[in-house]
Design goal:
Blueprint (H helix, E strand, L loop, with lengths): L8 H10 L1 H8 L4 E3 L2 E4 L10 E4 L8 E3 L10 E2 L1 H8 L6 H12 L6 H38 L2 E2 L4 H8 L4 H4 L6 E7 L8 E9 L5 E11 L5 E3 L7 E4 L8 E4 L16 E4 L2 H10 L4 E4 L18 E4 L8 H19 L6 E4 L8 H6 L15
Parallel strand pairs: 13-14, 13-15, 15-16
Antiparallel strand pairs: 1-2, 2-3, 3-4, 4-5, 6-7, 7-8, 8-9, 9-10, 9-11, 12-14
Helix pairs in contact: 1-4, 3-4
Length: about 375
């Protein structure tokens, strides 16, 4: 305890976070603002935009460098941590705190002023949490409304798209109720609303969690494919939905995932198309889709579930996708060890020469291109 009383690193970080706009511009004058973030190449100020500093909202002052590994200590943090990397003479927290005190003009703060600051900060945090909870609730309701007002799969462009991907629903024995179609879904990169395949995510308790959107376009030959005019034709709407899954095939037990018989293995793929492809070969299997590779590692399973079989993809060794896959595998292995279930985590690999099972189904070898842009997930 010094002249500044009980002022902690957390107190100082909160003060700096509130000054994110001014501080970000000072630390990185070569950066630029985009979508509510101050963007720069890295913590050292290189050109680029992979490091994004949040300028407003309840997470103001937090930042992440999306070019870094998720476990990289220089990959994310608050404004005090950014000061430590960017301007502190020694890259230590003590040096960052000294710099921050001078920048904030709080070389000292008496007990009354500190207590008033903390009361104000606690009230602001409570309001931010309440606001975030309301926003998440509203976004979830909007996402559910989008899906509920979508058309069932049969006879829609989404079914034409999936059929074009080689999916034979007669072999599966049913049309997944989670997959629907909307002709009018907004995309941030498009001025006009676009048609999209809309697939529901469910939490383990069965409640709606999010909606997965695959934006589609009709091609010149009358077929349907993924929207080629945007950087990413796949989106997930609703934050905080980690752990949820897209039900693709229930197999022999028609109840929800949480009620599957003890020992039932669960198959999980990253994409919807791969899940449907495997369901054609194993209509008796319980199959879900995670939506993204990173969501496989946090997928929630009921305690009585049997082995988890990950439907893998042949990503190049050393690639970010391959590294991420190993991390998701390790996360699920750790969860199985922690919950004492004895569950094994296995991998089902597609044949060599094919990126995934859907490519194998359609005969598309790695390195080949399909008309009107790539179609593999």
């Amino acid at each position: 305890m010094g002249a500044d009383g009980d002022l902690t690193a957390r107190d100082i970080a909160q003060m700096l976070n509130k000054e994110a706009v001014r501080l970000a511009r000072q630390l990185y004058p070569a950066g630029h603002e985009a979508g509510g973030y101050w963007c720069i190449g890295n913590i050292h100020g290189a050109s680029g935009n992979s490091l994004k500093i949040r300028l407003h909202g309840d997470r103001q002052g937090t930042w992440a460098d999306y070019a870094c590994d998720e476990n990289d200590p220089q990959g994310k943090g608050d404004m005090l941590k950014l000061v430590m990397f960017a301007v502190a003479e020694q890259q230590t927290m003590a040096a960052a705190i000294r710099w921050a005190k001078g920048w904030l003009g709080i070389e000292s703060m008496n007990g009354d002023a500190l207590e008033a600051f903390r009361r104000k900060q606690a009230a602001a945090e409570r309001r931010a949490i309440e606001r975030r909870d309301r926003e998440r609730h509203n976004k979830r309701r909007q996402a559910e409304g989008l899906w509920l007002n979508a058309a069932p799969l049969i006879g829609t462009p989404a079914m034409v798209y999936l059929t074009g991907r080689g999916i034979d629903f007669a072999k599966i024995g049913h049309l997944p109720g989670s997959i629907r179609f909307r002709p009018d879904v907004g995309h941030a990169e498009c001025r006009e609303k676009q048609p999209a395949m809309a697939t529901a995510f469910r939490a383990l308790d069965g409640t709606f969690a999010a909606v997965h959107l695959t934006y589609l376009e009709r091609r010149a030959d009358g077929t349907w494919g993924k929207l080629s005019t945007v950087e990413d034709p796949k989106k997930i709407r609703t934050p905080g939905s980690e752990g949820s899954h897209m039900p693709i095939n229930k197999g022999t037990f028609r109840g929800p995932l949480k009620d599957i018989p003890a020992g039932t293995p669960v198959y999980v793929s990253e994409g919807i198309e791969d899940a449907l492809t495997y369901a054609m070969a194993r209509p008796d299997a319980r199959i879900v889709a995670a939506g993204t590779l990173g969501r496989i590692g946090v997928l929630d399973l009921p305690p009585q579930a049997g082995d988890l079989i990950i439907i893998g993809q042949n990503d190049p060794q050393g690639s970010k996708a391959a590294e991420s896959f190993e991390k998701q595998l390790a996360k699920q292995q750790a969860r199985a060890a922690e919950d004492g279930s004895g569950r094994r985590v296995k991998i089902l690999w597609p044949p060599q020469g094919y990126k995934d099972f859907n490519d194998y189904l359609t005969g598309k070898r790695m390195g080949e291109r399909q008309p009107d842009g790539p179609q593999a997930d």
